[in-house]
Specification:
Elements lengths: L8 H12 L7 E3 L16 E3 L8 H10 L5 E3 L8 H7 L8 E3 L8 H10 L5 E3 L8 H10 L5 E7 L2 E6 L1
Parallel strand pairs: 1-2, 2-3, 3-4, 4-5, 5-6
Antiparallel strand pairs: 6-7
C-alpha cells in the first residue's frame, strides 16, 4: 500500500474483509510513504512498516500502539515528528516487540531508549542509525540494560560509525 492517501485502518479492514467474506487476520502490513493515516486497528498484526510517513506524530504513534498491540516487528524510519513523549506513552503497548527500526528519527534521545528498554523486554534488534539525539554512551547503556539484544545498528550516532552485533 505504498504511497496511499488518507487510509484508515477501519476502511482497510472492511476492504480486506469483504474480499474474503470474513475478517482477515492480517499479520504483516507495509504503509511506507503514506501521506496520512487516520486509524490503524489490527490486533493480530505482527509486522508493520510506517517508514517514511512524515505525518506520523506522537498521537498517531500512540493510536497505532493501541490498535496493534501484538507487533513483533516495527519500522518507523524517517518519521521525523516522533518524540520521546510519544514513545513514553506507546512503548508499554508493545511488550512483544523484537525488531525495531527508528533510523533517522531526528527528535528521539536516550530517553526513548530508556523507555523502550523498560517496556520492550523481548527486543532483539534495534536500529537507531542517524538519530542525532542519541549518542554512543546511550546505546551502550541500552545494550547493558537489555543483554538479550543481539544487534544494535547505530551508524553515525554521535559522530561514530558503530554497529554492535553480539
Amino acid at each position: 500500500m505504498a504511497e496511499c492517501c488518507l487510509v484508515s485502518g477501519r476502511e482497510l479492514a472492511k476492504v480486506l474483509g469483504s474480499v474474503h467474506r470474513a475478517p482477515l487476520a492480517l499479520t504483516s502490513l507495509r504503509l511506507a510513504y503514506c501521506s496520512s493515516l487516520k486509524v490503524l486497528q489490527f490486533p493480530q498484526l505482527r509486522q508493520l512498516s510506517l517508514s517514511l510517513l512524515p505525518a506520523l506524530t506522537d498521537m498517531g504513534l500512540v493510536a497505532v500502539a493501541r490498535g496493534c498491540p501484538s507487533l513483533e516487528r516495527l519500522a518507523l524510519s524517517h518519521c521525523s515528528h516522533l518524540s520521546d513523549e510519544g514513545w513514553a506513552q506507546a512503548a508499554r503497548f508493545w511488550p512483544r516487540l523484537q525488531h525495531l527500526n527508528l533510523s533517522c528519527c531526528s527528535q528521539l534521545t536516550e530517553q526513548t531508549l530508556d523507555t523502550i528498554g523498560q517496556a520492550c523486554k523481548q527486543l532483539r534488534v534495534l536500529d537507531v542509525a542517524m538519530c542525532p539525539g542519541i549518542n554512543v554512551a546511550a546505546v551502550r547503556h541500552f545494550q547493558a540494560q537489555l543483554p538479550q539484544v543481539t544487534c544494535i545498528q547505530s551508524r553515525f550516532v554521535g559522530g561514530a560509525d558503530l554497529t554492535l552485533t553480539l
